[in-house]
Amino acid sequence: MSSPVLSMHGVEKSFGLFRALGPVDLELMPQERLGIIGPNGAGKTTLINCITGVLKPDNGSVKFEGIDITVQPSFKRARLGISRTFQIPQPFRGMSVTENLLVPLDYLHGTANKRRRAAEVLESVGLSARAAHPSEDLSQLELRKLELARALVGNPKVLIADEAMAGLSEAEIDEVLAILMKLNQQGVAVIMIEHIMHAVMRFSQRIVCFEMGQLIASGTAEEVTRDPKVQKVYFGEQAHH
Ligand code: ADP
Ligand code: MG
Hints:
Distance between the termini: 48 Å
Order of helices and strands: EEEHEEHEHHHEHEHEEHH
Helix content: 25-40%
Bound molecules: adenosine-5'-diphosphate, magnesium ion
CATH class of the largest domain: Alpha Beta
Oligomer: single chain
């Protein structure tokens, strides 16, 4: 048995008197594909923010490869190998696609040939043809790919995709899923937060469901879909009509 790449114990986060998250216990194994589902406001992004260092939890601990990173700043976590995409793509305006990758590469250090690394990553997400174009020219799908590329330049061990497929067509969703699957096969553990159920179900080896800051179910896609607590969250309203 290998040990988890990421582990959270008793993680809690409140905004004022409102507890948005926790306490949560959750582990991610190396090269695992974990899906996180739950309605809007369930605390999914707050959890990711506690993992990546955007937020400091009020209680509990976050460990990466056994090292306590609970209070480490984001850039240190990024250098360790935790990377994420944002729900709303945030490219640097007025810069080319390649330049958008050179910025995080500068920030991460350690990469000898930054342009070559940028080209490599653009190739892996299928954006090579757009390398010299300004980010303003990109389609929704291409923006999502750039968002992924920016998360990948530092060779992360854990990639967190926060609603990376919102607004895409079925064919485009398949394309993003294929990119994530390929990365996973190359050894990256992936956390997929997603409202597009068939995508997250197809992708994930394990799924956890959050509601009101609590982890209410965990299992395979089939197990979670059948879980009465999950059904209540997703179908409870209709059932009362
Ligand atoms: P999800 O990603 O599952 O939709 P979030 O983690 O974004 O949910 O939000 C969980 C809850 O915490 C929501 O009720 C949201 O309004 C609240 N919340 C999130 N971030 C903040 C913040 N910075 N300040 C105040 N409330 C917040
Ligand atoms: Mg969210």
